[in-house]
Amino acid sequence: MKELKKINLCGKEVYPLFEGGRGVNVSNGETAGAWAREDCIGTFSGVFPDSRDENGVVKTPDILSKSRLDRHWEMMDKAVDGCVTQAQIAYEKSNGKGLINMNVLWELADSQYLIKNVLEKAKGTINGIVSGAGLPIKLAEITSQFGVFYYPIVSSGRALQILIKRGYDKFKEFMGGVVYEDPWFAG
């Protein structure tokens, strides 16, 4: 087998091997950090990840609010905390090597709120945001404000053309790549 060579991706020399960012705590800071430590690209899931309690112990957050609206915002804020926790864990485990990405479901209610708050609170720990399931039109604009690369997930060349026409062309220096998911075989 030929030797795998590193590539320059987002300003770092890494092997072109990506962890997929599988949802709901399957891909977390531990797995993303392990991939990054090997000079690869680790991706943790931004779907309601575990956070740390007051003693630093990682745990799944409880939702205690009673009304639907209060539960939504409590869940969003705890998701932000969990993503920041997972980014910190990944960064610590990586020893400063590789790249660390967060995968966010774009069609999640208030995904833009989640991404903005995570990037604000986890500065310097996340290299890229992977996002799809719908057209993540504002992804390029949001991530570029933080100097973070973006990786839209698309199911066709036409979807990518729409994203470019809707503003991605203004933020092309932060496009890390494009993830193609076949609409018939994704997931």
Blueprint (SSEs and pairs):
Layout: E1 7-9, E2 12-14, H1 29-37, E3 41-45, E4 51-52, E5 58-59, H2 68-94, E6 99-105, H3 111-121, E7 128-132, H4 139-144, E8 149-154, H5 157-165, E9 179-180
Parallel strand pairs: 3-6, 6-7, 7-8, 8-9
Antiparallel strand pairs: 1-2, 4-5
Helix pairs in contact: 1-2, 2-3
Q: Can you walk through the features of this model?
A:
The chain contains 5 helices and 9 strands, in the order ββαβββαβαβαβαβ. It starts with 6 loop residues before the first strand and ends in a 7-residue tail after the last strand. α2 packs across α3 (111-121). Helix content is 33%, strand content 19%.
Which sequence of strands runs across the widest sheet?
3-6-7-8-9
Question: Kindly state the mean pLDDT as a whole number?
Answer: 88
Termini separation (Å)?
29 Å
Q: Which parts are unreliable, with pLDDT below 50 for 5 consecutive residues or more?
A: none
Number of helices: 5
Rg (C-alpha, Å): 16 Å
Beta strands, count = 9
Helix content percent band: 25-40%
Major beta-sheet overview: 5 strands, parallel
Strand content: 15-25%
Shape: globular
What letter string, H or E per element, gives the SSE order? EEHEEEHEHEHEHE
Main structural class: alpha/beta
Short key terms for the protein model shown above:
globular; two-stranded antiparallel ribbon; 187 residues; alpha/beta; 5-stranded parallel sheet; 9 strands; 5 helices
